């Protein structure tokens, strides 16, 4: 069994392209991320690593798999809710976040009762990342990562400005505008 030294986040979503940015941002934040593209992949991963998972981000509408019956998931329309209930019963250590186009926070909270951290609409990726960072105590790390990236941009920009100044100086032009006119 793999030992996890970083916070482990399980994302369950059948559309890998819609969550690829979230996966990348969580990795940048310092998390280990497992993306399950089906309910069956999620159950398999949970059975193996459930005790290590800190947060599960669940899409609400996922096609039915083999583990749950269609009536339990309402034909796939509430698969994430069904999976959330299953997680709550078997791995109470995992915090749950609904991440769906249809995420109405109050409605989803009702499904998961008090164990559920809330719902986030898929158009609000920044809010999702901030919620995960806060729950895992990584907000400082996230701020640090943003500052680190901004510093890299500033270094590149100052390098470009220096290069332009050198070109202006050695070519005898009086300004950058003279070069391009």
Tag the structure with descriptive keywords.
181 residues, alpha/beta, five-stranded parallel beta sheet, 5 strands, 52% helix, 15% strand
Which secondary-structure class do the elements indicate?
Answer: alpha/beta
Number of strands: 5
Percent of residues in helices comes to 40-55%
As a percent range, the share of strand residues is: 15-25%
Flag low-confidence runs. none
The rounded Rg comes to 23 Å
What does the secondary structure layout of this molecule look like, with pairings?
Layout: E1 8-12, H1 16-29, E2 32-36, H2 39-49, E3 53-58, H3 79-90, E4 95-100, H4 105-112, E5 116-121, H5 125-135, H6 139-171, H7 176-180
Parallel strand pairs: 1-2, 1-3, 3-4, 4-5
Helix pairs in contact: 1-5
């Amino acid at each position: 069994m793999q030992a996890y030294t970083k916070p482990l986040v399980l994302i369950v979503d059948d559309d890998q392209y819609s969550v690829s940015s979230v996966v990348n941002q969580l990795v940048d934040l310092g998390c280990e991320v497992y993306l399950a593209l089906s309910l069956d992949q999620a159950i398999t991963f949970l059975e193996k690593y459930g005790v290590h998972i800190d947060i599960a981000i669940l899409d609400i509408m996922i096609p039915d798999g083999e583990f749950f019956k269609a009536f339990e998931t309402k034909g796939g329309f509430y698969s994430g809710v069904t999976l959330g209930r299953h997680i709550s019963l078997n791995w109470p250590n995992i915090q749950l976040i609904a991440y769906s186009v249809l995420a109405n926070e109050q409605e989803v909270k009702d499904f998961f009762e008090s164990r559920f951290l809330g719902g986030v609409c898929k158009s609000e990726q920044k809010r999702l990342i901030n919620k995960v960072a806060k729950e895992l105590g990584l907000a400082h790390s996230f701020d640090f990562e943003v500052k680190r990236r901004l510093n890299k941009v500033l270094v590149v920009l100052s390098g470009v400005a220096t290069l332009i100044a050198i070109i202006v100086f050695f070519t005898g032009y009086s300004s950058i505008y003279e070069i391009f006119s």
